Amino acid sequence: MSVVVMFYIVTTNMIVPVPPSELHPERDIEDIVLGILRNTYEDSIHSEYGYILAILESKVEGLGHITPENPSVFFRANVKMLVFKPEPGEIIEGSVVNAIETGVYVNIGFTDAFVSVNALGREHFKFDIRKGELIGTKTNTVIKSGDWIRGKLFPATSTVTVGSATSLPRVRFNIRTPLRLERTHGELRIRMSGRDLGLGLLKTIYKKKLESMEQFS
What is the pLDDT along the chain (217 residues), one digit of tens a residue? Predict the structure, then answer.
């Protein structure tokens, strides 16, 4: 069974407004634009791309232009970025970072996925609030921080809100149209299921595998 996390390199064109305060004769415009893009978009959510991990590079195309309505100088740039967008049905493994009454949060690298108690297996789990653990009512299986889970990803959802244009750099992109002048904030919600064959708590999977091997030895 392969375990792969889906990362993508996305290349798109953007119109980047550079405010007068950022324009300095001794600074290269390439560095200025790249800095604005990184400060605005790294570690943020886009409704179409998912989680933007890094702005890798940008290339300014031609001279900037100005408009009567805005003091900024607008530059067109070709931008390459690294994003994470999990695919539905993808199999992934991660360690439990927190167990609560309704499920567990599983770390999958740079963020956490949520596995509800109904998706943990084919038995009911109760929560021990003192120990912060989930306990199976049939097998007494304990799920706690540090345990590893293999699960199947559900389609990711995201919440996106628009930040104040007065407190944030005035940059926002769209893959098909020029940039709008606001930044988006949000949360990427990733859910997993461990109910299918071969999925679930790894220590339970390995225990069953050893028991099966002993029967044929």
Answer: 444 557 889 998 889 999 999 998 899 999 999 999 999 888 887 777 778 889 999 999 999 998 888 889 999 999 999 998 877 778 888 899 999 999 999 988 777 888 888 888 788 899 999 999 999 998 899 999 999 998 888 766 654 433 333 333 333 333 333 333 344 444 456 666 767 778 888 888 888 888 888 777 6
Range list of β-strands (E), 138-206: 142-143, 148-153, 157-162, 184-189, 192-193, 200-201
Separation between Cα atoms, residue 21 and residue 152, nearest integer Å: 48
Q: Which domains does the chain have, with CATH numbers?
A: 7-85+158-188 (3.30.1490.120), 91-154+191-215 (2.40.50.140)
Q: Measured in Å, how far apart are the chain's first and last C-alpha atoms?
A: 24
pTM comes to 0.63
